[in-house]
Amino acid sequence: MRYVQIDTQSNPHSNTHPTTEKQKNLGKVLLKELKKAGITNAEMDEYGYVYATIFSNSEKQNVPVICFCSHIDTAPDCSGTNVKPVLHKNYDGKDIVLPDDTSQVLKADNYPYLRNHIGGDIITASGNTLLGADDKSGVAVIMEAASWLLKNPSIKHGDIKILFTPDEEVGKGTAKIDMEKLGAQFGYTLDGGEAGSLEDETFNADGAKIIIHGVIAHPGYAKGKLVNALKIAGELLNTLPKNEWSPESTEKIEGFVHPLHVEGVAEKATIEFILRDFNLDKLKDHGEKLMHLAGEVISKHPGATMEFTIHEQYRNMKEILDKHPQVAAYAAEAIKRTGLDVKTESIRGGTDGSRLSYMGLPCPNIFTGMQAIHSKLEWIGVNDMVKSAKTIVHLCMIWEERS
Ligand SMILES: [Zn+2]
Question: What is the dihedral of CA 136, 141, 142, 143, to 10 degrees?
Answer without folding.
Answer: 90
